[in-house]
Amino acid sequence: MDIKTDVLGNGFKSLEYIHSDDYEGEVKSVVVFRDTEQSSSKAVLYVHGYIDYFFQQELADHFNKWGYNFYAVDLRKYGRALMPHQKPNFARNMDEYFEDLDSAIAKIKEDKNTEMILMGHSTGGLLTSLYLNKQKDGFIKALMLNSPFFDLNIPNALRSVLGIPMWLGKHFENLNVDFLTQHYPKSLHKDYKGEWDFNIAWKPIVNFPFYFTWMRAIRLAQIELHKGLDIKQPVLVMHSDKSYKGRKWSEDIRMQDAVLDVEHIAKYAKVIGKDVTTIEIEGAVHDMVLSKLEVRKRVYDEMFNWLELKALV
User: Fold this and answer.
1) Burial code of 37-49, b = ≥16 C-beta within 10 A, e = fewer?
2) Which entry of 111, 132, 231, 272 is 20 to 30 Å from 145 by CA?
3) How many distinct structural domains can be found in the chain?
4) Burial letters for 182-193: b for 16+ Cβ neighbours within 10 Å, e otherwise?
5) Residue-level pLDDT, tens digit, the chain, 313 residues
């Protein structure tokens, strides 16, 4: 395996894992990690969300400061792992990603870490919840979730007809819609209305196609979660205090979750395990660590306080 200097620089390295071919052909995932001089044997693995990849260096800085070796994975068909023959961010089933997580965790163990925390944002929060629910390995000590995608953010009137897109997703893999607005990515990127720099080929302003097959995979995973999980480890679920549900630009997008319904997150956090802490952060955006400075300072404070409470730092 060839370890390369990552596109982020700043001590980050990346390592590709080639997996068994799937229905589109060759598949890979990419593990990103940082070389540090600290002698910690604890690690954290971060898993990104939909239309996303790992670029949140400030998150890595904080975990390094707290004594953790930092790792992130770009899942198959996302970010660094997206290949020319693949439909971006596409999946038939969420279980497809388990092999990507397995490889990343194997790397963490190879680096002589003795324990780790799993962390997921949005779709990554749904994925990591299902993954940890099925793991019996005591190596993973806790789960931290940043605005997890526990339910579809759609009006109640549409829920009665979800069977239609579910059927379409099962039978027509190339069927997609232009569903998402550009407002949220524009609110983040420094060339538009935000402060962050990210690769718009991997996290585009004009969003990737929204495939019905992908939606079906997400929905099946959510239904599994809604029935109740039995995660043994302590779980931290964090979300904004409000959701923005408009289709037009508003300054509220800078201070609310413009992607998910925060009430859904709070509701389903209650069914994933017995030791779940839910924290609401006023003024946070969907990816909470990309919120305004004063807000994300509180996000990091709450994360550290929880880690300290659970004797993980």
Assistant:
1) eeeeebbbbbbbb
2) 111
3) 1
4) ebbbebbbeeee
5) 689 999 999 999 999 999 999 999 999 999 999 987 777 899 999 999 999 999 999 999 999 999 999 999 999 999 999 999 999 999 999 999 999 999 999 999 999 999 999 999 999 999 999 999 999 889 999 999 999 999 999 888 788 889 999 999 999 999 999 888 999 999 999 999 999 999 999 999 999 999 999 999 999 999 999 999 999 999 999 999 999 999 999 999 999 999 999 999 999 999 999 999 999 999 999 999 999 999 999 999 999 999 999 999 9
Tell me which residue has tokens 């004594």: 67
Q: According to DSSP H, which parts of 227-261 are helical? A: none
Long-range contacts of 130-139 (CB under 8 A, 24+ apart): 130/94, 130/221, 130/224, 130/225, 130/229, 131/97, 131/98, 131/101, 132/231, 132/233, 133/229, 133/230, 133/231, 133/272, 139/105, 139/109, 139/114, 139/115
Taking residue 18's Cβ as centre, other Cβ atoms within 10 Å add up to 11
Would residue 160 count as lying in a domain? no
23 DSSP 8-state letter: T
Residue 156 within any structural domain of the chain:
no
**Is 296 within a domain?**
yes
- 178, with CB counted inside 10 A (0-12, 13-18, 19+), is exposed
Six token digits for residue 266: 């709070």
